[in-house]
Design a protein that fits this description.
three-stranded parallel beta sheet; single chain; two-stranded parallel sheet; binds tryptophan; mainly alpha; 363 residues; 17 helices
Amino acid sequence: MEKIYLTGDRPTGRLHIGHYVGSLRRRVELQNAGGYKEMFVFIADAQALTDNIDNPEKVRQNVIEVALDYLACGLDPAKTTIYIQSQIPELCELTFYFMDLVSVSRLQRNPTVKTEIGMRGFKESVPVGFFTYPISQAADITAFKATHVPVGEDQKPMLEQTNEIVRRFNYIYGDTLVEPQILLPDNAACLRLPGTDGKAKMSKSLGNCIYLSDDRKTVEKAVKSMYTDPLHLRVEDPGHLEGNTVFTYLDAFCRTEHFAAYWPEYANLDELKEHYQRGGLGDGKVKKFLTAILQEELEPIRQRRHEFEQDIPAVYDMLKKGCEKARAVAAETLDEVRRAMRIDYFDDAQLIAEQAKRFAAKK
Ligand code: TRP
């Protein structure tokens, strides 16, 4: 089967380097490697509204931020269809049909949704739309017959839910939809990049993010204040790598050629780690190295973003074209879905002819 890549992001803020190593970097590589039929990347504004219903302006303002981050990272509208979820009404239709295929107790077991409900303090008043977003996410994926979905680890339960829906749908209505495969980052540090404070996840509310659009000074400051090893008090003390954010970031960003460029005293990351653990290597030096690597990676992204920021109407124009193309694809799938579900009344000449005959014979 030909590959169809699809993924998306909620527009609740600018994208940060956790998004980058978790999925964005991979998407751009996949896009440029070729060998696929289609690549879809979308801005999940309708999903963002499920827990921001009273803050539509936040979602509205962040659509462009995410679009700019996409373009800055190298997503290319000539190769990737970039669109906005809410502009594809077929997704709502498909979600509605999928709702019949999922039980309430199955949704209650979704670990990501469970955690999110706790974090958002919904208590007893979880909005139905939020509770059911894994179903709408299954529609996002299957409306485009995606075969591969590059996302972070937290999206695993959504893909499992999607595959259950696809199997159930195909079993009941006949082979129509495609089971997607998750594409996770292959490096453990990229799977879940911690915040600069060492907390498990980067999040805007914790103020522990490095954004793709942060300027050089902000990045430098963020690394300087980064959490390391609290037991590594003096340079000569042995250092620990576990939970040491600076080393986790190096695992995610460092390539061997960075040593030749910025720190030729070491041949590779293993040598550096060894010295750190032995003692005699200060955090400041390691942080300086990490800063150099991050600046090298982020500078071209910043520059491209700045260029795209000069022509915002053109970015909206690109998004509009993407929506048109995406809508045409989703509409085709929905035609198949309606046919499979036996709700294609007006397109089924046979149905009408047979019923006409039956009723005529009744007299
Ligand atoms: N839930 C994803 C996130 O929070 C966004 C998303 C919505 C998505 N629909 C999707 C990702 C479909 C992949 C495929 O980032």
